[in-house]
């Protein structure tokens, strides 16, 4: 199936949904393009009332056979996975027999970072005739454009911090570490790991309160971008109004993300919140990160 056929809406798109509003934003964008969707919310992570207006079927970790049966019944071949899910420990999952047949691969999945895990998971699905797609392939309109959202632009000092952040993420990418860093006055204040962006920003707040951050309020940048070599069908960097609020609490100047590969949740609200907080939100080009 070609990219043009996918955009034309050939067959329902299966969306495996974690928590948050992003799965619904993707579903709405795909529907506007003329393609039907069928949602597979993960039990415990999605509000049943929020998903009620879409055709859906709740699934659980490790119960692949039920997903496979319902997806085929719905006519789905293409699959997108999006939303917040706390990665479970291997011992916490009750696998069905279909998954247990792939136990060696399952064990390997959990011996590495999220990109490693999700790439192996995709291969297991594809062995059975499904195809994983990225959000950028099915709903590119929810991705960050190049340039600023809102009124403010980064200063020359901010751009130097952005360049440092891009270089840092590029350097640690082979270790499958998180997609975000905070840099102020050319100094790395924090690197995102398993805690995620919001808790990383809270750590900056705590460091400031403890006198461990020497840069002035209103300086420093949160930089987010995919890790080098990342499978971009999964776990693209995401920002939203809560990211803006976290950056403001941390006393930073703004947010820089890679255009075209970063999801923006509720962009209009992001712009309003950024202007109200006096910070910038900008998309940088992948081939030329800092103008």
Short overview:
The chain folds into two domains: 136 residues, Rossmann fold, CATH 3.40.50.20; 142 residues, LpxI C-terminal catalytic domain (Cytidine Deaminase, domain 2).
Annotation field: number of helices? 12
SSE order, as H and E?
HEHEHHEHHHEHEHEEHEEHEEHE
Straight-line N-to-C gap: 37 Å
Biggest β-sheet, characterized? 6 strands, mixed
Question: Considering the protein shown, what is the CATH homologous superfamily of the largest domain?
Answer: LpxI C-terminal catalytic domain
- Average pLDDT, rounded to a whole number, is 84
Shape: elongated
Query: Low-confidence runs (pLDDT<50, min 5 residues)?
Result: 1-9, 87-93
CATH fold-level topology of the largest domain:
Cytidine Deaminase, domain 2
CATH architecture descriptor of the largest domain? 3-Layer(aba) Sandwich
Global structural class:
alpha/beta
Q: Assess the beta-strand content as a share of residues.
A: 15-25%
What's the helical proportion of residues?
A: 25-40%
The first-level CATH class name of the largest domain? Alpha Beta
CA radius of gyration: 20 Å
